[in-house]
Design a protein that fits this description.
With 319 residues, the chain is an alpha/beta fold. It folds into two domains: 222 residues, 3-Layer(aba) Sandwich (Rossmann fold), CATH 3.40.50.300; 81 residues, Alpha-Beta Plaits. The chain has twelve helices and 14 strands. It has a six-stranded mixed beta sheet with strand order 6-7-8-3-9-10, with helices on both faces. The chain has a four-stranded antiparallel beta sheet with strand order 2-1-4-5, covered by helices on one side. It has a four-stranded antiparallel beta sheet with strand order 12-13-11-14, sandwiched between helices. The protein starts with 5 loop residues before the first helix and ends with a helix. 42% of the residues are buried. Bound molecules: adenosine-5'-triphosphate and magnesium ion. The site of magnesium ion has 4 residues, from helix 2.
Length: 319
Amino acid sequence: MIAPLPALLSGSVPVIEVASLTKRFGKFTAVDGVSFSVRRGEIFGFLGPNGAGKSTTIRMLCGLLGSTAGTARVGGFDINREPEQVRQQLGYMSQKFSLYKDLTAAENLTFYGGMYGLDGARLAERIAAATQLTGLGGVDKQFAGTLSGALQQRLALACAILHEPPILFLDEPTSGVDPIARRMFWALIHELSGRGVTVLVTTHFMDEAEFCGRIGFINAGKLIALDAPAALKRGAVAEDLFELEPEVLHGAAENLATLEGVTATAYFGTRLHLFCRPGVFTAATLAAAVATRGVNLRTIAPVAPTLEDAFVRLAQKKT
Ligand SMILES: Nc1ncnc2c1ncn2[C@@H]1O[C@H](COP(=O)(O)OP(=O)(O)OP(=O)(O)O)[C@@H](O)[C@H]1O
Ligand SMILES: [Mg+2]
């Protein structure tokens, strides 16, 4: 493999540097002038609604899709001019784990290792290491298509890290995987990050987004927020937030959205979150206002915004 540039090992130089990256499909702009950078060993989360442009950005950063405008350097190489070198620097788990379902786990590992130029003793050594790290032992003779979702996920990760890439792109790696397996997977991500691997990961799970050092939020192709999770929550939700438990949930969000002083509403499990202009309401005055709409409440309380609240507010922003 191509050795990472010495400067990249210092931690001071961004490993991923994205500058005004743009992708148009015909007249449609899927990624619109996105710029950010990621440091060595960082876990960078990419959040945004369906169709926001996350996967398209990742495919460009992997050198699999040319950009229409702007560019990026990944591991010191230009994605458009040096896509081969870029691909050598990274491991990629695509949104649909790209395993060969009719090959066994071991055959998948051998195939991907071969693609990365590994063979002989080195390939065997790397397969053993990746198998051990991902806890895949014992399933090597099983067809990939018959493995559980969690094992397919771990096999896909093992394939992606065979060549010890310094950069990992993980596109919704935990979708369809149970909560325990998700936690185990994140323990692995932290372990790799601790070893200096730079990770860019997309997820729709807010608990996972909390594990990221920084989060970029993309909406309609534009990067509209970029910060650590705590700061992102503060920045995205400028209003006062109240959590209400109505006796009848159905229709309550739509009904209360038009109350004077309420800027947005969102269902939150069996509860409702009301975003209100700062300083307009206390819990008592809001309860009184809600009562005028015929909505009976079990509980009402001011709450701190969660990452899900931040997601909802950012997704509602006009770009
Ligand atoms: N090859 C293509 N041709 C035309 N449009 C495309 C192509 N690839 C993606 N798109 C469109 O670009 C937009 C962004 O898609 P993308 O897959 O990047 O979104 P995403 O943020 O990854 O969404 P999700 O969370 O659902 O995975 C979507 O509207 C999608 O339909
Ligand atoms: Mg996607």
